[in-house]
Each structure stands twice: as structure tokens, then as C-alpha cells.
Design a protein that fits this description.
single chain, alpha+beta, about 35% helix, about 150 residues, 6 strands
């Protein structure tokens, strides 16, 4: 009986720990648009619509990721905030949707659905889902956001 309890405890602990290792994230990459201002503007309008429907707040000024174009976050949520952002990476724009660790929350699932619908409506055939995801490799070293320049 004691052995059964120990085995059950180990299995339950492993199950609990493995369920927390999942990162809630979706990512899209639109290639060859970094210099196309009209495509950038279209993307920013699309993301603003998604953010508005989801009740996300524009917190672009707080981003410390280099070349951030826009950054939205779920207000008044302490843990597992849904966050939506876009950043330039080379000649591409990467759109990131995150929601923290653990099983997908209802608000993340809704955000994922809204973003996918908007990407299909506005950028059908122009985006890809990168595999593996494009990592954030160059964080801004200052507390001020860094935006791309040029035209």
C-alpha cells in the first residue's frame, strides 16, 4: 500500500509539472514588408482591431524589445496576461501572441482565434508560421523603446 501511494504521488507530481511547462504562444511572420510602409500600416491597423476586440491596452511605450512596432497587453491581469506585439526582424515583421505558461486559457484561445482570423482576412497567402519560432535575441539595453528608422 505504501509503495502504491509513493508511485501515485510521483505520477501525479510528474503530470502536474509537465502541464506547467507549456508556453502559450503563437507567431506569424510576414516577409519582405519591412520597407513597405503601406504593408506596415495595414498590419498595425489589423493588430489594433484585434487588440480592440480583445480589450487589450496599447503599452508600446513600455516595450524593451528592439525594433518593436506595437505592443498590446491585457490590462488588470496579474498572471498570464495575453500580450500581442509586432517587431521588425530583418526584412520581415514578426507578430507575437503570448499568454504565459501552462494550459491555454480561455482569453488566450480567444486571442489566438481573433488573430488568426485577422491574419487570414488581411494577409492571406502573405504570412507563415515560423518553425522554430523567431526568438527575441536583441533586447533593448535602455528603458526606452527602440524603433526602426528609415523609410
Amino acid at each position: 500500500m505504501k509503495r502504491f501511494f509513493v508511485i501515485s504521488l510521483v505520477v501525479a507530481t510528474a503530470a502536474l509539472l509537465s502541464s506547467c511547462d507549456t508556453i502559450m504562444a503563437s507567431q506569424y511572420r510576414i516577409t519582405s514588408v519591412a520597407t513597405a510602409k503601406t504593408e506596415q500600416a495595414k498590419l498595425l491597423e489589423s493588430l489594433a482591431r484585434v487588440a480592440s476586440r480583445l480589450g487589450l491596452k496599447d503599452v508600446t511605450a513600455t516595450s524593451t524589445v528592439k525594433y518593436t512596432l506595437v505592443f498590446y497587453s491585457q490590462p488588470e491581469v496579474k498572471n498570464f496576461q495575453v500580450q500581442l506585439g509586432a517587431r521588425m526582424v530583418g526584412d520581415s515583421i514578426v507578430v507575437d501572441l503570448t499568454g504565459g505558461f501552462g494550459p491555454r486559457t480561455a482569453s488566450f484561445k480567444e486571442a489566438e482565434k481573433e488573430l488568426l482570423e485577422e491574419m487570414n482576412r488581411s494577409f492571406a497567402g502573405k504570412y507563415e508560421i515560423p518553425s522554430p519560432y523567431v526568438q527575441i535575441r536583441e533586447p533593448n539595453q535602455s528603458s526606452q523603446p527602440t524603433r526602426p528608422t528609415g523609410g
